[in-house]
What does this fold into?
Amino acid sequence: MLSGQGLNSDTIMPSISPPAARAVMPSWFNWKTILFIAFAARTATLLLVHNFTYPHFFEWGDISRKYLSGRGFSYYTINGADVPTAYMPPAYSFIIQPVFRALGDGPPAYILLQVTQLLFGVLLVYLVYRITRIACDENTALVAAALAAGYPPFIYLPSEMHSINFYIVITLAALYYLFLFLEVEPKQSYVVYAALLLGVLLYFRAEALALPFLYASLLLYRSRRYWKSALILILLPLFLLTPWTVRNYRTFNSMVLTTTSGGINLWYGHNQQATGTQREPWPSGKVVTPDAALQSRINALPPTADYELRLSALYHDEAIKFIRTHPAREAELLALKLFYFWTIDWNHPKARHFIYAAPTLLLVAVFWLGIAVNGRDLFGRYLILTVTLLFTNLIALVFFVLPRYRLVVEPIMILFSAGAIVWIWNALIALGTRPAEPNVEQRSLVL
It folds into this structure.
């Protein structure tokens, strides 16, 4: 499926390519070598971190363990009663459960899951190479792949039992096929592949529900002749989501397309304690919790089947009330969210670690250089990448900032960063090969 052709390097990224001689990569510097390095680095990290004795599975672990113990698909336990859940997108639970059922809830299962995540991490590097090759050129693609292979947050990621290991790859794969359709050849099969991937993505990320409509609009913006492709891009993901939506309707007697966590996610970004992230200001760094008054109302909720809907409504109403009554603070929070999104979440303990913070801030700086030198193509050739970046930033502004929210678009940032690095490289080569200025004697001879 990953079969898109590369474009002629002389016609790609004209706005950032110096007119001089281009760098020639050594023969050993190829995508196969880079993938091997990516695999080796991630394997070494898994062994070093040693997170397979009893790792933290976040909410998905609780949901999966309850389900396998016969307590239903549940997350919250209220007054001893398990209530049904759609709090989290279900895909990672669907992955965990059969592994636990087959291998048990122990190290063999954890190792299998982490090795699977490792392989997806290597696939991410390959996808960065492929999409950069069609968006830019071979040299830039190799640099982008090398950046992705050696980027510390990506190296560490498979060690975390988290769904981002899968949905970051799925997101980039969908973008790859849409970029092929828009910029290489408008084959209907590319749209079908992208639509299938977006349908799977809906089981991983609730906000992904907007992406089929967003990308379909981009197809129509490019050409109204693409209306059939736009329709496929909307209808096929929604069709794939139908079983989960039907399950939710039958469970909650209400239309829940994806999850029931929208209210609390909105509240995290809009409340008296809000910082722009999910956490209290450093050095506390604890996740923000409800005040006594709100907690009292939460505690009064009965353990009914629609408990999560009632809980979400409480948080939603509190957030909307805060937004309406604190316009000045909302403006401050907006600025803080922009700051945290484009630097790091300074309130998050892991984000503050040097191994994460230093390469992340460096990537942001080089990314903006890539944006600066390639500005004229951002809303042309790279429109779908630009819109994806802006959409992700918008989600953070509406809700709150978490490190992983930007992590999902960092492959795109790496693409632009690689473009900036190659541009600098070629400029230095051009500078080194430029003929020297004639001295006084030479000038007199010329005259």
